[in-house]
Amino acid sequence: MTDNNGRIARRFAELSAAGRRAVIPYLVAGDPLRDISVPLMHRLVEAGADIIELGVPFSDPMAEGPTIQRGHERALDKGVRLRDALAMVAEFRRNDADTPVLLMGYANPVVGMGFDCFAERASEAGLDALLTVDMPPEEVEALNTHLKRVGLDNIFLVAPTTPPERVEKITEVATGFVYYVSLKGVTGAGHLDVDSVTEHVALIRRYTTLPVAVGFGIKDAESAAKVAQAADGVVVGSALVQLMADRAAAGDGEQAILDAAAALVAEIRSGVDSVGDSVGDSVGGSVAGADADKAGTA
User: What's 7-297's CATH class?
Assistant: First the structure.
C-alpha cells in the first residue's frame, strides 16, 4: 500500500517556506482525449503545477458550469469512470512520487464502489485526497474513517454564502486544505470579486490552520495574481478545460493540446509568482494568524 500520508501538507509547507502559492490545475479524466490525462498531468507539473486536481466523470455534475459539464460528457462517452481515474493516478505515480493528486467528484461513484474498497484502491494508486462535492460534513464520518485509515485527506468546499457557524463545522472535518469557491454559482460563472475573496478567506482562517485554496474564476495570470494575494493556492479549471476542448475541436493532435495546456498553466504560475514575498506574511503566517483568531474568539 502506498504511503500517501502528508504529501499535500508537505507541499504547502514547502511553498509557504518559499513565500509562494500553490497552482492547482483541474482536468476531467479522459478529456478531451481518453489517453491524454497522464501525459497532461506530467506536462502541467513541468509547467509549474503544484497539485493536480483530477475530475471524475459523472452524469450529473451539479456544481459545474457548461464548460466542465461538457468535459464530463465527453469523458463519459469515452467510457471513463472512477476506476479509470484511479488507474490514471497509478500510472502517473510511476514517474512522479512527489506531486499530490486530488480526485474531485460526486458521492455516487464512491458510494457505489464502497468506502472501504475505494480507500484501498485509492491508496494503492497513490492518491492523496478526495473532494466529494455533494457530501456534507454531517454525512462524512463513515467515509472519513476509511480515508484516515489509509492516510488520504478529505477536502471540503466553502462558498461565499456559507455562514460562519457552517465554516466552523466544515473545517472540523476537513484535512489537507480548504477549497474556497470564489463565485456564487457554478464553475465558469460570474465575475471575480477579489475584495470578497479576501474577506471570506480571512473568515475561513479564523476557524482553521489548514491552507486555503481558491477556485472558480481563475482564468489568466492577472486573475491568479489577484487571488494569490489572499490565498495559499489558486485553482484553474474551466479556462483549462475549455482551451483543450477548443484545440481538440479544431483538429489539433495530442502534442498541440498538451503544449497549449502547459502554456496556460505556466501563465498562471507566472501570475501567482508575481505576488512574491511582498505578501509572504499572509501565507507564511497563516497558521499563527488563524491560531490567534481562534484564541480571540474562544
Answer: alpha beta
